[in-house]
Amino acid sequence: MERTAGVALWRQIAERLRTDIRNGTWKEGGKLPTEQVLSARFGVNRHTIRRAISELSAQGLLSSRQGRGTFVENAPSPLTYPIGPRTRFSEIISRQSREPGGRLIGSGREAAQPWLVEKLRLSLGQEAVHRLEVLHVADGIAVSLSTNWFPAHRFPDLVSRYAETGSITKALAAHGVADYIRKKTEISARLAEPEESRWLQLAEGAPVLVTDLVNVDEAGTPVQVSRTRFAADRIQLTVEN
């Protein structure tokens, strides 16, 4: 366990147990080891183990049965997340009978770095961008963290529109962009950084899948650049032709 990672020990343990459940270490209906065994495994006291189990129980993954122990109640498979011309988080999650949600955790107006100027095709004098930091959840569980950039001159009220609606699609529509499509997606994998681990409730060093994308409007003009970090054990990315 990482005791200096900035992530509470009980959260790290809950994430390890959640990963074990998803990987089939303990199948649905199976019994978890005792608190004493788990305490020894993670090197923590039993109170910390109880806090982790309580969190997973609140999420419907575990249930404690008096005098019998703790059992796996529900072992969900990773969400399938297709990458195609029209990739919309809410639609994708809703189609899998999960409840989508988005939370604005940061925003700002800033000067675009050279790589952003190129990707968004910004002209001289129009190099300012809006940045949105968004945490996406499914059934209340964090699945991705995204940083999004938009041309500020074209979308002056984008931050407030997103704050009102919780939807990038609706925020763009309020500025006259009726539809947009994915022009390019780059996919990579790495270990989560401390801040990412905190927001995604991951153990220190857990893997994340990273997508870097450019979305364009119907005329082919870039409207959004985004970098999204997905919790690797909660999402399965698929590429649609």
Automatic annotation (TrEMBL):
<feature type="domain" description="HTH gntR-type">
    <location>
        <begin position="7"/>
        <end position="75"/>
    </location>
</feature>
<protein>
    <submittedName>
        <fullName>Phosphonate metabolism transcriptional regulator PhnF</fullName>
    </submittedName>
</protein>
<dbReference type="InterPro" id="IPR012702">
    <property type="entry name" value="CP_lyase_PhnF"/>
</dbReference>
<dbReference type="InterPro" id="IPR036388">
    <property type="entry name" value="WH-like_DNA-bd_sf"/>
</dbReference>
<dbReference type="Pfam" id="PF07702">
    <property type="entry name" value="UTRA"/>
</dbReference>
<dbReference type="Pfam" id="PF00392">
    <property type="entry name" value="GntR"/>
</dbReference>
<dbReference type="InterPro" id="IPR000524">
    <property type="entry name" value="Tscrpt_reg_HTH_GntR"/>
</dbReference>
<keyword id="KW-0238">DNA-binding</keyword>
<dbReference type="InterPro" id="IPR028978">
    <property type="entry name" value="Chorismate_lyase_/UTRA_dom_sf"/>
</dbReference>
<dbReference type="InterPro" id="IPR050679">
    <property type="entry name" value="Bact_HTH_transcr_reg"/>
</dbReference>
<keyword id="KW-0804">Transcription</keyword>
<dbReference type="InterPro" id="IPR011663">
    <property type="entry name" value="UTRA"/>
</dbReference>
<dbReference type="InterPro" id="IPR036390">
    <property type="entry name" value="WH_DNA-bd_sf"/>
</dbReference>
<keyword id="KW-0805">Transcription regulation</keyword>
